[in-house]
Amino acid sequence: MPNKDLCEKDLLRVPAVFASLVNLLLFDNKNVIQPEQIRYLDFSAHFFFNRRLHPLYHDVGAIVLGSKHNLPFLFCFENQTHSDWLMPVRIFCYMAAVFLWQIRQIRATRKNKDPNFPLERLIPCVIFTLHYGPYVWKPKSFRQLFRYDAYPYLQPFLSDYKINIENIACWDREKIASIHSDFRFVADYCRQMRESGGKTYDPPTEWSMENVEETLMTLAAFSKDGDLKKALYQFIEQFKFYEQKGVVTMSSVIAHIEERGRREGILEAEKQFLAEKKIWDLEKKDLAQESGEMLSTLVILAQKTMIELGCSAQNACAQLGYSDSICQKVLPFLIS
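^ thats the sequence. predicted structure below, dont judge the formating
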């Protein structure tokens, strides 16, 4: 099964989800950026550390194409489940990788080398770290990583570097409900896990779901409930291979899970009944066989008594103390 990091990236690679978060974070949730303005890019770079070449990848990055409302700019997301005190350094490196990528694109454009994405000048880039943990992660500035106050003679020459961190689990219900994409399901799950201490999750059943597979895969990756995780994956498999009619909501997902559970319960009950019936039939057969063997023994004893005493079949049964019901079964096999 895919891990949490991959599922988070897959959901953010849906243009509608990416655009909705840009609108939420930059434009006060106004519908400024459209999904068709999103073009995903690879800003990968490499650096040497400890005598090794390390790759430097953004989680999800894209250029937001210009429109009548905005000039083009670059936007990147970094996903974090746990806090990292070195995040300012990492963001600094990510930003450097973005501008090095731009320089390569500009040079290729000027030399007519047919770059993947032509650029004529540098454009700004914004990086947001999405923190999914159940607590508030207060970002530290770049200069707080060292003893800034201990270097008063250097302070006029030291630059700070701001990092943007969003604590998803700390967003309120209204903000989450206002998100115009399926990311609100993930944000609401994180919020509920924080508020309940990771114990309860009550899915918002009224919200419609556009990107069913990506959303449910992400929720399944986040969930620690084995039964819920299994049920979500089963629903995804059905959704992938069978045509779905109507709008998918968490209510329909839950209804499917409950109906599937009911059907599985019925099948399990039928299976158990058939197993018990098989055992009962075998016991019945054994009992009949034992009864036949017992009747044969009673007939043989009665015949032996008749011969030894020279009496009738009726008297032999009386001598042996057979009850009336046993006599009725034994007498037809005796010849006086």
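The chain has a mean pLDDT of 80.
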